[in-house]
Design brief:
five-stranded mixed sheet, globular, disordered N terminus, Glutaredoxin, about 210 residues
Length: about 210
Amino acid sequence: MRKLVALAAVATMAMWLSACQKAVTPVTDDEMSLGDPKAPVTVVEYASLACPICAAWNNEVFAQFKTKYIDSGKVHYVSREALVHDPALAAAGFLTARCAGRDKYFKVVDAVYHAQTEMEQGGQPEAVLQRIAKENGLSDDQFQACIKDSTALAAVNARWDHYVKDDHINATPTFVINGKVYDGGYMAMPQMDQAISDAMAQRKTGG
């Protein structure tokens, strides 16, 4: 997969972030997100398209989480792109999702997560990504131009470098719920329920 893109060196990983450390980067209007920005709870997920645990959370939890919290207006969900496990695969997947457009970004991300095992076992990740791109409106030429776009590649590397150095993210998935960091990886739905309940309660009390 590394032939897809010549990734710039990813910054050395920082120490792990704990809830008592400074807040992570504030959410901006141009981030990839779902739901009402004015929702009482903001859930930020740092995830890599090459991360098996991230794929498991997406495939097993995200649909229920979306229906219960995002679609109901309770949560504003923000996705932040991480480059771990196989950085080249993650970068190519994120570039493809962005090239498909904001309205299809999460559809492409979901398709890549569901195809992760196929890419690992089949050994042809570029072909799988190209198929996903075509299913989401990109021609073969557009796909090739997309994953070879040096400016876009530099941007995704810069974002990840920032998350590592300034937000102290060094593993995925990491969730930040109303500013509190949950760094234990996979969060099953009951854990997510409790974390969101805690965030809502804290918001009501002004804590």
